[in-house]
Amino acid sequence: MFLDAELHIAYRVGNASISNFPFPHLYIENILPSEFYSKIQENLLDKKEMTSMADLYPQNTGLSSYKDRLVMDFTRADSMKKLGKKKQEFWTSFGESFSKGAFANLLQSKFKRFLDMRFQYLENVSFRHEMQLINDKKNYALGPHTDKLSKVISFLIYLPKDFTQKETGTTIYMPKDPNLLNKELPHVHYPHEHFHKVITMPFVPNSAFCFIKTNNSYHGVEKLDKEETDRWSLQYNMHITNETLEKEIAAKDKHHKETNTKESKVKSSFNI
Questions:
Q1: Are 170 and 156 within 8 A, CB to CB?
Q2: 154: β partners
Q3: Which of 31, 35, 103, 174 would bridge 208 by S-S if both were Cys, CB 3.0 to 4.6 A apart?
Q4: Rounded to the nearest 10 degrees, what angle do helices 34-42 and 2-14 cross at?
Q5: Are the CB atoms for 140 and 221 separated by under 8 Å?
Q6: Cα-Cα-Cα-Cα dihedral sign, residues 137, 140, 146, 150
Q7: Cα torsion for 180, 184, 187, 192, to the nearest 10°?
Q8: Nearest-10 Cα torsion for 70, 22, 218, 28
Q9: 3-60 pLDDT per residue, tens
């Protein structure tokens, strides 16, 4: 069952077209075999089996809406202990299937030319992975942001039961302030009103949204205001390790200093 799902995803991702504006991303329908999607629906968790994101990441004190997002993090060893045997077996197998190198290699291959540009100053790059089942409740919202510096790729599978939540997918934004473009800024969630909405991905059954982190990868979620909101999704994130991040920052700083030095020499030569 899991091998069939892996091959199906590989086919769908491998043959999908990348949209480049305003940052590289994919939107794919029928991302999973229909039988496997039904199995996921059967194994969705009870809310009491999940943890508030505010409790899971208490350091993110500025994001009050995290209390309205419930998470099961499959990469945390103790997460599965709350589950019954059937669901524990399913989600353990699911987590193992997606944490294998094949899925990461698939995404790295798909976005290779962009990743080669990002890591052009590094000889070796090490990655870490996380997989989460997510449930968003009424009032959840996520302001436009580009993601933390360690993020490389995000892959979201939307899990609604029907098409009634179509308007609640991830939204891509462009900042009204041009100073927020093409700059490596701190990881900040901005107010929605400071951004233009470009497009909202349709939150429909068995669809996926995937993108790479760039300086312009502003995305978020508009406030969920319906009383009966029950927004399920799966999220796979690829990060570089802390060690690689430190090397990346140092390599970029070195490159910028060398570039500035060369530019200064050119300017001074014209002033002679």
A1: yes
A2: 211, 237
A3: 31
A4: 120
A5: yes
A6: negative
A7: 20
A8: 0
A9: 899 999 999 999 999 999 999 999 999 999 999 999 999 999 998 889 888 887 766 6
Contact between 199 and 171 under an 8 Å Cβ cutoff? The reply is yes
Boundaries of domain holding 74: 2-240
The encoded tokens of residue 270 equal: 């014209």
Burial of 218 (0-12, 13-18, 19+ CB in 10 A): buried
Q: What is the CATH number of the domain that holds 191?
A: 2.60.120.620
In the chain, the DSSP E strands lie at 25-29, 51-52, 69-73, 127-136, 142-145, 151-158, 171-175, 195-200, 207-212, 219-221, 231-240
Whether 151 maps to a domain, the answer reads yes
The domain tally of the chain equals 1
Nearest to 224 by CA among 69, 16, 92, 45: 69
Quote the CA–CA distance of 26 and 49 in Å, as a whole number: 31
Per the document, the length of the chain is: 272
- Inside any domain, residue 169: yes
Residue written as token pair 């599978």: 157
Q: What is residue 6's DSSP assignment?
A: H
pLDDT score of 270: 52
pTM: 0.91
On whether residue 256 sits in a domain, the answer given is no
What does the pLDDT read at residue 79?
A: 77
Rounded Cα distance between 121 and 114, Å, is: 13
Residue type, 152: V
